[in-house]
Design brief:
The complex is a heterodimer of chains A (about 250) and B (about 180).
Chain A (H helix, E strand, L loop, with lengths): L2 H5 L2 H5 L5 H12 L2 H19 L8 H10 L16 H24 L14 H20 L4 E6 L5 E7 L4 E7 L8 E9 L2 E7 L7 E4 L9 E8 L12 E4 L3
Antiparallel strand pairs in A: 1-2, 2-3, 3-6, 4-5, 4-7, 7-8
Chain B lengths: L4 H8 L4 H23 L2 H18 L10 H20 L8 H6 L11 H14 L4 H13 L3 H8 L3 H19 L4
Helix pairs in contact in B: 1-2, 2-3, 2-4, 3-4, 6-9, 7-8, 7-9, 8-9
The chains are: A alpha+beta (about 250), B mainly alpha (about 180).
Amino acid sequence: MITDDLHLLTGAYALDALPDDEREAFERHLAGCEACAQEAAELSATAARLGLAVSVEPDREMRGRVLGRITAVRQDAPGASPVIRSGRAALRARLVSRWALAACLAAAAALGGTAVWQHQRAEDALAQAQRAERGSEQVAAVLAAPDARTRAVVLPGGAIGTVVVSHGRDQAVFAVSGMAHPPSGKVYQLWFDDNGIMRSAGLMNPGRADQAVLLRGAVDGASGMGITVEPTGGSKQPTSAPLALTRFPA
Amino acid sequence: MQPDLQELVGRVALGDEKAFAAVYDAVVSPVLGVARAVLRDHAQSEEVAQEVLVEVWRTAPRYRSDRGTAINWILTLAHRRAIDRVRSVEAAAARDNKAALLARTPEFDEVTEQVEARLEREQVRRCLRTLTEIQRQAVTLAYYRGLTYRQVAEALTLPLGTVKTRLRDGLIRLRDCLGVTA
C-alpha cells in the first residue's frame, strides 16, 4: 500500500474503524510520518468530542462499585505508554489482571493477619504462626480459584472490603484495607448469612487495618456474609446491628 | 472539560485513590455515554464503563500526556472497549441491514442537568450538520455504531476508498467547526 493511501486512513483510525491488522499496520506507519501522527491526534481529539456529546448520568451505586474495585487492583508500572488492546489481547490482559489481583491479595495475606484471629484459645506463638501460614495458603487458594467471584463491600467510615467466594472450594475470603480499629474491648466478628440466620465465621485481627481473612467454616449454601462489632472473644449470635451485610456474588 | 484532569490523572498514577474518585466524577458520564451509544444496552454499557474506569486506574502510571489529553485517552479507551464488545457479540449478518443501522441514531436528546454537557451536545450536533449527508452517515456509523470502514462501505453501498476519504474529510470538517487542536 502506498503512503498516500495509508495517509487517508487517519479518519478511520481516529474513529476506531480499522480492523485490528490494519490498525497495527497504520500505527507502524504513524511512527515514521509526523504529519500523519499530527492529523491522527487531532482527529482522535475530534472523535472524543463525539463521545463527550453523548454523556449520560450513571446510577449512583456505580461509584461505590468502581471505587471498591480499584482498591484490589494493582497498578501497572510506569513505562511504555498504555497500549489500548483489543480482542484477544484484551482478553489475555483481563485474565492476567485477574491473576495479578489474586497475587496482590495473596501477598497482602502472606504479610500476616490472615487466619481468623483466635481469641478463644490461648495459643503459643509457634502454633499461631503455623495457623497463620496455613491460613494464608488457604486464602491464596481461594483467591486463585478458577471460579472465584468478588464483590465490594463498603464499610462505615469509607473503608472498602472485598469478599471473594469460591463455590468450588466452598470457602470465602474477606479482604479489607483501611478498616478502623474496633473500640477497646471489642472485636470485629464475621458471619455467614444462612438466609437470615447468622452463623459465626470467626473473628478479625483487631490490631490490623489491612487484612485478608479466610472465613471459618464452609460456605455451605450461605447467601452472604455480615460483620458485627462484638465483645472480645466473640459472640455465639450477633449482639449488634451489622456494620455491613452483603450477598455473595453468584 | 475539567482543567485539572491532567493533574488528577498524574496523582492517580501515584496510587492516589482520592484523586481517582475525582477523575471518576469528571469522566464517568462521557465514558458511560460512549459505551451506551455503541452498545445500546443498559447493563452491558455499565459493565464496560466499569471495566474502562478500572483500567484507567490500572494503566494511569503508563499514561503519557505528550500523546494526547487525559480525556482523549480515557474516551479512546472507552470507545475501543465498547466496540470490542459489540464486534464480538453482534453477528455479521445482523449488521447488513442498512435501514436498521441508519434508523439507530445516537441519543442526542438524552436529558441531562449538566449545562456543560448540554452545551457540548448542542455544539457537536450543530457541527455534524455542516457535514455532507454521506460524511455524517459514515462518521456516525463508525463512531456511534462501532462499524469498521469496510462495514460502513457495505452499509452505505460505497467503494472502500470513498468511505476512507469521507471519514477523513468528515472528521476534518468537524475538527475545524469545533476548533479542536491536538
